[in-house]
Amino acid sequence: MSIRKMISLHPSIQGHVNQPLGDAVHHAMYCAKMCLSCADACAAEKMDMAQCIRACSDCADVCEATARLGLRRTGSNDTVLREMLELCARVCDSCAAECDKHDHEHCKLCAIMCRECAEDCRKAAASLN
């Protein structure tokens, strides 16, 4: 099952799907869950991971909100959606930078996902111009 497919089935779409936006929604959904998982793993580490936990938790919340806005196809609010996509990209960059400070595998995976999400959010924001 694909969220892109679900978006394409919306009656307002009429077969015209914004592929970059669909990709950003897809990545933001997964990034939110990866960040939550990383924050949980950081909480179990022996060293002080408070800043990484905060970065991952904030990123998860912003990604979740961005995905929710991107899913909505009834009506439009491109200005808010573009700003959320741009914010999501910046927050993902920040989270990736924090995760890069640690040698834990969960942080490495989280950083990769955050960078992919940031890239797709920037492409989606540009597609709304």
Question: Can you characterise this structure?
Answer:
This protein is an all-alpha fold and 129 residues long. Helix content is 77%, strand content 0%. It has 5 helices and no strands. It has helices at residues 3-8, 19-44, 50-71, 78-99, 105-127. The longest helix is centred in the N-terminal third of the chain and has 26 residues, at 19-44. The two termini are 29 Å apart.
Please sum up the structure shown.
With 129 residues, the chain is an all-alpha fold. It has helices spanning 3-8, 19-44, 50-71, 78-99, 105-127. It starts with a helix and ends with a helix.
Helix proportion range: over 70%
Q: Sheet with the most strands?
A: none
Bin the strand percentage: under 5%
**Number of helices, counting only DSSP H or I runs of 4 residues or more:** 5
Low-confidence stretches: none
The average pLDDT is: 92
Secondary structural class: mainly alpha
Radius of gyration of CA atoms, rounded to a whole number: 15 Å
Oligomer: single chain
Shape: elongated
Order of helices and strands: HHHHH
Cα(first) to Cα(last) distance is 29 Å
Number of strands: 0
Topology of helices and strands:
Elements: H1 3-8, H2 19-44, H3 50-71, H4 78-99, H5 105-127
Provide key terms for this protein.
mainly alpha; 5 helices; 77% helix
